[in-house]
Hints:
Chain A is of the alpha/beta class.
Amino acid sequence: MSEPGVPERWQDPFTILGILTSAKTIAIVGLSPNELRASHFVGFYLRRHGYRIVPVNPREKTILGETSYPLISQIPFPIDVVDVFRAPDAVPEIAREAVRAGAKALWCQYNVISPEGGAIAERGGLRVVMDRCMKVEHARHLGRMHWLGFNTGRISARR
Amino acid sequence: MRERPAKEFGFDTRAIHAGQRPEPYTGARAVPIFQTTSYVFEDPDSAAAYFNLQEYGNTYSRIMNPTVAVFEERVANLERAAGGVAFASGLAAQAAALFTMLVPGDHIVSSAALYGGSITQLKHLQRKLGLEITFIDPDDLDLWRASLRPNTKLLYGETIGNPGGNVLDLEAVATIAHAHGAAFMVDSTFATPFLCRPIEWGADIVTHSATKFIGGHGTSIGGVAVEAGTFNWSNGRFPVVADPSPAYHGLAFHETFGVYGYLMKLRAESLRDLGAAMSPFNAFLFLLGLETLPLRMARHVENASEVAAWLERQDGVTNVRYPGLASSPYRALARKYLPHGAGSIFSFDLPGGRAAGRRFIESLDLWSHLANVGDAKSLVIHPASTTHRQLSDEELTAAGISAGTIRLSVGLESSPDLIEDLETGLRSVQQMRAEATA
């Protein structure tokens, strides 16, 4: 049940799993220092699972113990994924920055729906995921979401 | 990547596999029974992350258990829900689902054609927790609409009502609820996810007494509530779901966890506070039940259809209330919502009142006389001399039954044997009537 404007390929489980298993460094645009906010839960979780988290938030110096950068373009090392917690109209510019930074994927969280931003990233050679949560997808495919009775949709007889 | 996450598996496959992968430590193929109260933490940071809900982790079996979790995910998967939480009984699941969303002064519009235990529970909630409840004839859509008040938060009914076999117009009631910003909850115990999935028609929460067809063999008491994850609990009408939770440092469950907000609250607050957790062993038995649910339900429906059709042809039997019969007023709704069959629980009337009902029950040899439904064994009860014996004939009529009403839960035995036994019962009632006239 994808939202209008989100093509199926931007929610494809194979793409999602490919990104989750290959990424090492994740820039989180709009990461909040408030530990009760969804973005903080996601950043905390991804860091706990071995990803390097790079906060992108001009109002903060450090979040989750990591240096926060005002813009993606100011991150002085390569990043694999740009994960977006911003209003949809901010996504096209973030997508352009992600392309310029050489990121391999643009990931837009729940309700961060921008067909234009997705198209910009795709033209720049990035894989795109939209209207999906990176924490939930990690927990669904690689983590322990099933420990709390959530429907992961996973079926497999392999050990 | 070794699995196929994109594939949509069939119902029967999901009934056997959903929620479980072979246990990675031992390779055990059956679901292990994790009979433990608690779980050793990897380190203090992990423990803190679990208690802060920052990581999916096991802490204490009153709140979560790996065996119970397989059952929860399997039911959620079959019902096409975002997730589920299991409870010690169906009534506990229902109480917790209500407790999670309602505050004193909230109003519920409920079908009056409910399991008696549900009606009692709602009446107690009304008196003790200050809820307002309006019971209505579920067949009348205008009545659902007319009963809405500014403080109506929930519409509630059963997929197949009790005892009249009313089939609820799920899609219409869901539309009425959502236009009012209210949630729609359905007890789908009599249908099971094999026959109907209310979420596909707009329901927000579905509850089950797993004790019945899900377990299927009359061994264990249990329940489960699943939620679709699509209702907007932050619409301003559900402060206990949307507002910051003092128990979790001011966490706003729905805003932060989105699709999973209500379910997190149902587990981390309601199950934790009310304490009616399902035992791991019962979850194991319910999982065995779910593996064969499609096979059993198909046979339950086949037997019930044969028994209902036969009863309808018998002299001295009236009002065979099986929604699968061509004569049923619910035939059209049953075709829409229950295309694979209308379950196997229904009632019929014997003329001759309480004495006839009693004589009928006494004459049966194969049908078990007891207060349960949804067993592999065929079950029978005479409400006027058991569950409803304190009611006058007038009160029975108000409850939608008569002094001669018999309720059947048709099991999985050979149907000719079931019919033969019922025939003995009917003959015995006729004999009694003949003796009375002589």
